[in-house]
Amino acid sequence: MRLVEQARSIFAELGYSVEGDGPEFRAERAWKVVHVNTVLENDELPTSTNGEFHCFVAQPDDADDLEERLTSTDPSYEWAIIVVDGDDYQVERAPPGPRVTA
């Protein structure tokens, strides 16, 4: 199964409605919209702020390089990385939780 198909399946299983074709798509659930990019099919990082949340879906060999690129680029959006290995997946990096000030 291609990485983009696995990414769509993961978000559908999590209860998101999935919209769009190709290596970039949109997943929506309740108030949350996530812009999803599959790394294998699309090597470019999004530069626009097309939403607050971006999730990158990668294979294990690509995850460290991707995290390094995102950390050094410091994009203006919250981002997460899901690593897909065969039929299994795990969240490698999730956005930080809400900031609380006292």
Summarize the structure.
With 102 residues, the chain is α/β, with parallel strands linked by helices.
Give the SSE order as H and E letters.
HEEEEHEE
Give the overall average pLDDT: 84
Which stretches are poorly predicted, pLDDT < 50 over at least 5 residues? none
Give the count of helical stretches: 2
Distance between the termini: 48 Å
Overall 3D geometry? globular
Q: What would the keywords be for this entry?
A:
single chain, 102 residues, alpha/beta, 6-stranded mixed beta sheet, 6 strands, 25% helix, globular
Layout of helices and strands, plus pairs?
Layout: H1 3-13, E1 17-19, E2 24-29, E3 32-38, E4 53-58, H2 60-73, E5 78-85, E6 88-93
Parallel strand pairs: 3-4, 4-5
Antiparallel strand pairs: 1-2, 2-3, 5-6
Describe this protein's structure.
The chain is an alpha/beta fold. Helices cover 25% and strands 35% of the residues. A 6-stranded mixed β-sheet has the order 1-2-3-4-5-6. The longest helix is centred in the middle third of the chain and has 14 residues, at 60-73.
